[in-house]
Amino acid sequence: MFRERARLAIVGLISIVGVIAISGCDIQVLYPSAYEDTTIENDTLLAVVTPEGTEAYSPADVVPIQWSGSIDSPTVVIDLYRYGQFAMQIASRAANTGSFNWLIPVDFDAVSEVTDHYQIAIRAQHPDYSPGDLFVQAFSEPFTIVPQASGGLSDVTVSQRIITITMTDNGQEIDDDTVDIILNGATISAAHVLVGPPGTNLELTLQAGINLLEVVALNEGAISPNTAELIISHVLEGESIQEWRLATSESGSLTITAP
Q1: For 106-119, what is the mean pLDDT?
Q2: pTM of the entire predicted model
């Protein structure tokens, strides 16, 4: 995952702390004003090896983070970036062992308007400068965090035992998202290909009491993730219009309570 770059020169001071990123590269150098004319000769000091890019994770998943390079620092800082902006700190003093497992918080706000918009940043003190003076920061390839495996679906109560669900592909484009629909353990629609508005209707005959409706993503179409709007008829309590966002092989579920 290393990219060949002959040298990394620090130029163009615009604030007390400078940041420079080379176009098309995944490394930055952070420095105070005293080092504006410094040149870093070795650009293999630090590189993030994983995530490799295009992975999709959900809250409660473990993200294996790996990095490599010649930088000799006892600890590193691990941050999460979204759309190129700082999102949260994962670890402030992780041991510089080359690997760290990050457990995504269960309550992580994994809104995914587009895919591949998160990056892991590893930051380390440059060994040739005084502590706090100069840091090297490297970024992973972009990856995706989607809502947890429930798919964002929530439980409802309905007024009758025969209802209709309407499923519509509401992604950026209609891209052949395909799902299995399972009711109380039985597949009632296999390899269902989602279509655009007005969608497709599926009649469900429920049992009295609690029913479990599951959606299993068989693919993610041309654009990740597998996403759709779900409309449930005759809802008394809960959300009649819902949405799922699932990676391949993930499932979303909700309970439907009927009289």
Answers
A1: 70
A2: 0.51
